[in-house]
Amino acid sequence: MVNIENTGKKVYVENMFNNIAQRYDFLNHFLSLNIDYLWRKKVIALLKPYQPKHILDVASGTADLAIQAISLNPVQITGIDISDEMLKVGQKKIIHKKLDSIIQLMHADAENIPFENDIFDAAMVAFGVRNFENLKLGITEMHRVIRPGGVIAILEFSKPSAFPVKQIYKFYFKNILPFIGNTISKSKDAYIYLPDSVSKFPDGDKFSLLLSEVGFKDIKIHKLTFGIASIYFAVK
Fold it and tell me: Which end of the chain is least crowded, N or C, by CB within 10 Å?
């Protein structure tokens, strides 16, 4: 188990992602066999009917989801993250793709979003909410900055329950993923933290209840790839 008590979760997560930023994209796609791209594509498909023009990408990291959201023809995508090194990687990709007039990245905390109320048409997160130090506060902040009638789409790992996917998933997450991740990233804890954080995340109905408690409605769960990941979609 990863011990974050000495620093606090937020500082631990920031330092961890700063340390693995240069290898993050490669490992993300390699360890998921590129399925993560298809999962993000599903997020964009769910957002498309709402035609959001101003989008907030929380825990944007290296901006993969923000870049895919360009297909929605938005006016502006704002990506926030607490890891400067992840944002630097994302900024290079955005400039290379000549998207810097539409996608803006900035260092900011999801639990203290530096924007006024009711200004975004949509908020989205890919594999970020389980890293929040205060999960309910982060969700509350996203609710605050989305306009009434706006939507939220959250892509996150979940825990499959069906045999044999559950058993294969557990073995892969606890044995293969940490070994490969640690070997390539040179980070001792990062890919031990991943399965640990997934196991502690209140997925499924528990997370839906949390969304409801902060004011979201019409909440739907879209399970992906035998329940390995889920998209939580809701309306303000």
Answer: N
Cα dihedral 33/37/40/42 (nearest 10)? -90
- The CATH code belonging to domain 9-160+201-235 is 3.40.50.150
d(CA 113, CA 117): 10
3-class SS shares of the chain: helix, strand, coil, % to 5: 50, 20, 30
Strand-by-strand arrangement of the 103-107 sheet: 103-107, 76-81, 54-58, 120-126, 146-157, 229-235, 217-224
pLDDT in tens, 194-219: 888 888 999 999 999 999 999 999 99
Length of the chain: 236
pLDDT digits (tens, 9 = 90+) for 96-128: 999 999 999 999 999 999 999 999 999 999 999
Q: What is the DSSP letter of 155?
A: E
CA atoms within 13 A on the CB side of 75: 7
- 104: phi then psi, degrees, rounded to nearest 5: -115, 130
Residue 151 β-bridge partners: 122, 235
Q: Which residues of 121-141 are buried (b: 16+ CB within 10 A; e: fewer)?
A: bbbbbbbbbbbbbebeebbbb
Annotated domain spans of the chain: 9-160+201-235
**C-alpha separations of 235 from 70, 77, 212 in Å:** 21, 19, 10
